[in-house]
Fold Anthranilate 1,2-dioxygenase ferredoxin subunit.
Amino acid sequence: MANWTPVGPAADVPESCQQACSASEHSVVVFRIDGQLHAIENLCPHAGLPLEDGEREGMVLTCPYHGFAFNLRTGANVDDPHDAPVRTLPARENNGQIEVDLDALKD
Ligand code: FES
């Protein structure tokens, strides 16, 4: 069962923007790309540093610390698919709010 959790107004994430948000005890980053919302955990699997200031090109986000790059749809490390992925979450817009499904972060 999904655990849809509001993380902020949809207006705060216009097209081509990324925004760090708190969701319960988690930090996530929400993106709007080609009208679609995407969300990842704000935690690089390499060394546990935040991804919110990473540079995005298309569907790929590059960590600002050591340059690991992740596919925002799948979470996969684009340079080494066998390396740990970043965790992704379903995201949606509901009544003017962005919501993410925190069930995706259950261990
Ligand atoms: S902490 Fe992200 S690449 Fe090292």
